[in-house]
Amino acid sequence: MEMMPLTSDAGWVKTPGPSTEPTFRLLIEKPEALSVHADEIERLASESLDANPFYLPAFLGPAIKAFGNGEVELALFYAGTRLVFFAPILCAPFHRGALRMAHIWSHNYGPLGVPLLDRARGHAVARALFADLADVGIELLMLNDTPALCDTWISMRRAADSRVHTIFREERPILTVEPDALQQFEAGISSQRRKDIGRLRRRLEDVGPVEFSTAIGPALPAALDDFLALEAAGWKGRRGTAILNHAGRRFAEDAILALGARDAARIERMTVGGKLAASSITFVSGSLLVPWKIAFDESFSHFSPGVQLLLRNTRLWLSDPTIARIDPLSNTADARLLTHYWHHSEPYESAVLEVTPSAARARLARSAEHGRRLLRRQARAVRDRLQERFGRS
């Protein structure tokens, strides 16, 4: 089909098909348009095949400002007046302009790259989306940090007619909330580990009364300040990976408090004798719960305050009838604490999908991305070894 430009230079629009078909419009817009489409993105997020709290405007807007480097655009696919697909993307030439590849954007503070796709007609929307992407010259679509078993990923793979080139695949710990999930969780804690945890809890009670609470609503700003200070005072602060070191207070306040205003963020706290010993930030989107960050006071480290808070939180989450999936979005190498207590994992993938048949180029793109990831991991490993040796003295 012919394509005609929008009256503005914000994107492209698909010309109408027969009256029996929905009128699809593919828009590629700048981040400034996020507020224009915010209501439709919010609606789609509540009706999508899979949830992604990091693509809610409340979080995405501050994240693009903090980490987008001026390169992120918005891919919006409408059927009539209803948004049926949404994702932030990087869209740039590949291999000296011979190929255009759209890269669905994720980042270290939002490592979930599953787009928002209409639940009622996901596969049909994905098919139509690929046709429109091809019409505007995009030949490849890259997805990162995507659950390999989720419905959205399955629909996207089908739309690509299985022309999928996997870059990277890893297992990440998750919990699914089944009727007996709490019993399974308790049964998975060995008797020796349970005994050790109980002993540490009793020793902690000797220091002062142990209390747990959850900050929401008006209590969230003060709890966030406490969390940021606690994280920055610990090993993450010394390593330079605390939120205040990297993302900054402005991002944290804008994103987390905006999510909190729509009941999508909460902060769990454990105090000992009135002093904050451990704290965690959690996001909720639909039935998905994301344990995002955790920090603890190192003066209590002998009592494992992070473990004490994790166990309390897990029991609370597994008892919540509104939660179906608990996903910390961490690979097992970065989540050693979780893997001692959570014994289920699922595969995550990053892959290149052929929008149009481009197998050789797709393999080249896959190789380039795989090499970039390998170099980044090696650089991180060198940095960690140097900081382990010199940064904690």
UniProtKB/TrEMBL annotation:
GO terms for molecular function: transferase activity. It comes from the Bacteria. Keywords: Transferase. InterPro entries: Acyl_CoA_acyltransferase, BioF2-like_GNAT_dom. The keyword Transferase applies. Pfam families: Acetyltransf_6. This is Acetyltransferase involved in cellulose biosynthesis, CelD/BcsL family. It comes from Afifella marina DSM 2698. The lineage of its organism: Bacteria, Pseudomonadati, Pseudomonadota, Alphaproteobacteria, Hyphomicrobiales.
